[in-house]
Amino acid sequence: MGRLKNTKHEAFAQEYAKTGNAYQSAVSAGYSEKYAKGNSYKLVEISGISERIKEIHAEIEKKLIERSELELPMSDEELLSILYSVARRRPFQGRSMVSVTQKGKTNEKTTEYQYSPTTEEQLSAVDKLARIRGMYSDKLELEGNMDLKVVVDYGDDDENEAPTDY
Questions:
Q1: Neighbour count for residue 148 (Cβ, 10 Å)
Q2: What average pLDDT does this structure show over 68-73?
Q3: Exposure winner among 8, 17, 125, 144, fewest CB in 10 A?
């Protein structure tokens, strides 16, 4: 798709892709505050702008993956493995790195830790696994007798005769 022809639309898409704030993005793109207050959400809904925002997000994601700051999406097997581990309350090993810069000198400190899922996290994982396995029904199934009997009473005139005029 590439850049949008309308420069305000392009500026809005660029800013919205960064911030996710429609009002602020509209103001930054050069729209008046009055216009932005009432119409900024409409800009996001314009098909060309929404497609451009998705394109910008994809470009950013691609750059992050190339710089190894973002890993590829997890496979289904990885996701299920994590859910099962949390459901069984298996502890996770982790490592955090903190970088502190003082007077032009950067110090990095790496800390290893162990994390055990809480009961709430365990129950949430079990719930998600049950949904994946189809143990919950998202639709309501009703069974019953649907016979319909209609009785028409035309009054007390002649009980034995049915009316002939309809």
A1: 5
A2: 63
A3: 144
